[in-house]
Amino acid sequence: MTTVHNLGYPRIGPRRELKRALEAYWAGRIDREALLAEARAVRDARWRDQADAGLDLIPVGDFSLYDHVLDMSALLGCVPPRFGASDEPVDLDTYFRMARGRAPSGAPADACEMTKWFDTNYHYIVPEFAPDQAFRIASEGLFDEVVAAQAQGYRVKPVILGPISYLWLGKMKGGVDDRLALLDNLLPVYGQILYRLGALGVDWVQIDEPALALDLPPTWRTACEAAYNRLQGRGPKRLLATYFGPLAENLALACGLPVDGLHLDAVRADELALAADRLPGYKVLSAGVIDGRSPWRADLAVLCERLAPLAERLGADRLWLAPSCSLLHVPVDLSQESGLDPELRAWMAFARQKLDEVVALRQALAGEGGEALTAASAALAARRASARVHRADVAARLAALPPDAARRASLYEARAQVQHEKLHLPPLPTTTIGSFPQTDEIRTARRDWRAGRLDEAGYEAFLRTEIEHVIRAQEAYGLDVLVHGEPERTDMVEYFGERLDGFAATAHGWVQSYGSRCVKPPVIWGDVSRPRPMTVDWSVYAQSLTERPVKGMLTGPVTILQWSFVRDDIPRAEVCRQIALALRDEVGDLERAGIGVIQVDEPAFREGLPLRRADWPAYLDWAVQAFRLATSGVADETQIHTHMCYSEFNDIIEAIAALDADVITIETARSDMELLDAFADYAYPNEIGPGVYDIHSPNVPAAERMRALLYAAAERLGWSRLWVNPDCGLKTRGWPEVEASLREMVASARALRAEIGAAAGG
Predict the structure, then answer these.
(1) Which residue of 135, 332, 350, 399 is 20 to 30 Å from 505, comparing CA positions?
(2) Which parts of the sequence bind Zn(2+) 1 (predicted)?
(3) How many angstroms separate the CA atoms of 605 and 652, rounded?
């Protein structure tokens, strides 16, 4: 029968067991052996799940203690010198120091950069290369996992990130950016890895090259062909895996590479027939037909009809079936969602259920198991016929919007003057991005409230106490624009999803964002509207406690869209406009309640870009318009902020300027302000707060470091439009490090104000 396999599986465990073990290790509550024991338990359970589903090949090497790209750097010995030069294997704490700047042992150091994995909400640790970068096998983790899985009786398929994508995703530190020049040093180590896997009795290895779904420059395409020609004939058979988009002009290249099989994402592109035409007769075609990024059930009957001609043409030996990409991007198991609306639940499939869908497709192509196809078709028919999905009032409101609904009344220059007169802020005003630490006490109170052990009045009183504590703390630190700290919010998107019509929340639908950080994306299943205010009471209460301005805090429409699981029956642009209109109501209510500074965060703005540049203009148009629709209904004196993180801004700076936010805060601490080059080159006209405090590391930044970053920012932008703030929200940090870091940040800003003032006076 047709081979069924999987590209990768969620790592965190069905109840986030790995997250808890990692954080316990970092905090010193458990030792290395206890961490590794818990990790093995989670890893082994993943293998059992996939074997029990009926997969023929079990992926190995997709499990990670932090990030699979970081794992590849450890395997290849690509460790920046600041973490300590050594010819020894990369140890666990060096690995964690690269990821987060600190570990139980070893000196703290600046963590490696982190950015988004293609157009997903997963973050990877950016490989850091020197011009003379050397590579070697420096970790036994992959080989140990192969041995462990084989000992448990599994037929394994090791997964490694391919050499072209690895170099593409990295960054050169020092010298000319000529990453391709590193191939000569890199490929022999890949050859050694393949040889060792073959020596372990591995039949197939999966080599991921997602960069082939991008607009690769000709030099990279040529290098890809040369690289795989050099690697041919070594080790096991190789399945080249691509995903997240069509290969387009790279399809012929991929089909012609000297590998033994090709995996295509057949959800985001329909290139299976074209690939079948071009693949030599000895090569396998792996069809990624089950959506690895969506929670919705597949239409198995339609897929079976689509695949039947390919199955007849290629035969069972050459047509493999799989999800479109790693299932890392969906929750683990729908069976845990006993509290979910039964009608909605019937429309969905999480990672474990998607394995069943792949196996059901194989059975259907063999003329067996028609019950699964019938059940899927019935569920999809019920979803299409449901009266709950579409709302006439939402459509009518959008249709009735005036032509100028997405434009502020005045240009920025006029608004800025009015805002400065109203707010009376000093030069280099200091603020934070929004959230403050989510303590154990906050989580306990929330659990007690949801379980009925704490009543509504008691929970509200608790939250008000937390908000007052955050306000008083910020006043003591000397911050200029305050926030209420968001103790009422589990997550910056889930919170709004729980309060907007058309969304559903899950109980255990966790997805890894980075390291131990997990998010629980809400599910957009119907038309979106706001039944009542969502944040106004908390912002008004916080403002009542202080004379300093308090920001109203909202998540923007594009980020709510990107960080939710989105319905697939209407265009994403239409869903985003619905969310924007709901947020417009919230922004208006905040303004009417006396909140003069409102932040609408869009950290996912660049993440939403299609992978192909030809598709960018359409996306940027509707994304910009959605943000402006949400924020443009306010008076000139209301200051609109936005926040973005983990983005390379150079190629979308015009769209960022078109957002027309009065102040933008961005994440720059790990990149030494390099991201500001785009703003300087464009002569970005509005105010900017470049992050000077890396909140994804537990290290407390030194005042000298923050001052140096601010000088670097001023060299690019001047002093007059700069704000001073952390990189991102402080939710994941502890109070002691937050207090120390913010006091240092404020002291740095005040010292620079005095210095600038003295220079101006002189």
Answers:
(1) 399
(2) 643, 645, 667, 728
(3) 10
According to CATH, the topology of domain 41-92+110-385 is TIM Barrel (3.20.20)
Residue 473's pLDDT band (cuts 50, 70, 90): very high
Which tokens is 53 given?
Answer: 């589903």
**413-761 is classed in which CATH architecture?**
Alpha-Beta Barrel (3.20)
Catalytic machinery residues: 696
Half-sphere exposure of 508 (CA within 13 A, CB side): 17
| Residue range(s) occupied by CATH 3.20.20.210 in the chain | 41-92+110-385, 413-761
Q: Are 659 and 617 in contact (CB under 8 A)?
A: no
Closest to 121 measured CA to CA, from 324, 329, 333, 331 = 329
Contact at 8 Å (CB) between 638 and 529?
no
How many whole angstroms separate alpha carbon 225 and alpha carbon 462?
61
Rounded Cα distance, 67 and 160, in Å: 12
| Alpha-carbon span 535 to 324, nearest angstrom | 38
Angle (nearest 5°) at CA 681 between 675 and 687:
70
Over residues 340-355, the pLDDT tens digits come to 999 999 999 999 999 9
- Give the residue ranges of the annotated binding site: 16-19, 116, 121, 433-435, 486, 517-518, 563, 601, 607, 643, 645, 667, 728
Contact 297, 380 (CB under 8 A): yes
Model confidence pLDDT, tens digit, residues 670-721:
777 777 888 888 889 999 998 888 887 888 888 888 888 888 888 888 899 9
List the binding residues for Zn(2+): 643, 645, 667, 728
- Can you say which residues are annotated as belonging to the binding site for 5-methyltetrahydropteroyltri-L-glutamate? 16-19, 116, 121, 517-518, 563, 607
Give the CA-trace dihedral at 174, 179, 183, 186, to 10 degrees. 60
